Amino acid sequence: MFEKVLTPSDVGKLNRLVIPKQYAEKYFPLGGGDSAESKGLLLSLEDESGMCWRFRYSYWNSSQSYVLTKGWSRYVKDKRLDAGDVVLFQRHRIQPNRLFIGWRRGYLNGGFTVSEHVGKGDMNGNKNGVQLGWTTGFYSEHRSYPIHHRHFPYLHAGGGSQQDQKQRTPMRNSSNFRVLRLFGVNMECQTQNDSETLSSYNMSPSTPSTTTHHLYHLSQPSYSSTSNHHYLNMLQM
Amino acid sequence: MFEKVLTPSDVGKLNRLVIPKQYAEKYFPLGGGDSAESKGLLLSLEDESGMCWRFRYSYWNSSQSYVLTKGWSRYVKDKRLDAGDVVLFQRHRIQPNRLFIGWRRGYLNGGFTVSEHVGKGDMNGNKNGVQLGWTTGFYSEHRSYPIHHRHFPYLHAGGGSQQDQKQRTPMRNSSNFRVLRLFGVNMECQTQNDSETLSSYNMSPSTPSTTTHHLYHLSQPSYSSTSNHHYLNMLQM
DNA sequence: CCCTCGACCTGTAAG
DNA sequence: ACTTACAGGTCGAGG
What residue stretches are annotated with the TF-B3 domain (chains A, B) (predicted)? Predict the structure, then answer.
């Protein structure tokens, strides 16, 4: 259905995820517009491991925003999401009432750039190497994302549909940004800032925001993956 | 019945007082456990001047806490309570349905330790010298607090069968604190911190929290006090 | 408009 | 390691 690059607020202490209004109203209509409206509802979404996550979904009049509240912070913590990472919302092709949530690392997060940890106390080393992520479980992508069986389609889009996994890219750093070529695509990455918790919100704009390449990272290597899994691991520099 | 050292939240903008669960369930049972349960109820309590205060008392499912809500902020304002101060809840010895509310200054509040003001913007000068408080009005203390007609019973004063629980230890650390001897008792007090508004929550543990010595500060010096008033003023070290 | 209030929520620290 | 208590928050309704 859609995805969102997480802002610092989305992963911070506010314990809520703002759903972009356009998607919210399109995919998660609230109340129906007549009677039982904005009391909020409970969304149940399956993650890459089949686990069900329940989120309270509601509309905040004060900010005119649609948000996930209860349950969200647990998800963030469990998946170790950071600003710049991406969450995905998908619907089952056959059973439309079955919803899925997934995620992937932002290009600048996820184990590279050791000094790039958002928020203090993040150097827990939990991001090293292993990238958990959405596995597209029971979902065959090619309907919801008809043409996106490519990596970085907006730039290039290599065509392989299967596991190109672990193409860890060097992503080398120099001063602060460095261009690396990944799948034949030039990318910019911030590397090692001087010290501070640079708000990764600043860096979000540099990431290709709403593109729908599917760079999934397997959560359990032995997951019962059926076919269409695309995953990629970018390498610690 | 019991008392509580007020936290910043208890006197802040949340407009509620959390009643420790053990006391709440012991003294203010809600709902009776069968039918009309946790709809909350209205508590009427007399203060030191005989004035009646009404508070809404209820249970918050979400946080599993018992709270006073409506009416509480008025009380805080009226008595000029601050974090570290103590509120007391008592029951009439003869007429058990008659409830009383009282309070006293925390040892670190109330006009001493000028640098020790909790929360920002607290230096309103309202606390200078005069200590308002519970006067034990119609209440003869010696039942509810049988042997505690002493100061600092937790340090001295004998082992009454009742409320000696939570003998919070001085727990003071080093550099910022100073030991002073007062009424023959060694006490540690924070002196002149380096700068910050030390959250008085941090200081709560240093106050003898739930001990039941009766250090009442007369509200009106000319109040029709009967007998059992103990008051104490600590000096700025 | 601001404040109170009611209901909900969460991180943390104890036990 | 789990559970609980609760301090410190949120939003939204209502006055």
Answer: 2-107
Residue with tokens 């359990």: A220
The bases of strand C with some atom under 7 A from any protein CB are 4-11
Cα-trace Rg, chain A: 18
Gap between the Cα atoms of B20 and B18, Å rounded: 6
Going from N- to C-terminal start, the domains of chain A cover: 2-206
Q: Which nucleotides of chain D have an atom under 7 angstroms from any protein CB?
A: 4-13
pLDDT at A39: 75
Cβ contact B36:B27 at 8 Å:
no
CATH number given to A2-206: 2.40.330.10
**CA–CA gap between residue B142 and residue A109 (Å, rounded):** 65
**What pLDDT score was predicted for residue B37?**
55
And the tokens for A181?
Answer: 């070529």
Residue B185 sits at φ, ψ, to 5 deg, of -120, 135
| Rounded distance between C-alpha atoms, residue B79 and residue B133, angstroms | 8
B210 in helix, strand or coil?
coil
**Chain A 196-215 residues whose Cβ is under 7 Å from strand D:** none
Residue A182 CA distance to nucleotide C9 C1' (Å): 42
Nearest residue to D8 via alpha carbon and C1'? B9
A57 touches strand D (CB under 7 A): no
Highest mean pLDDT among A146-150, A204-208, A222-226: A204-208
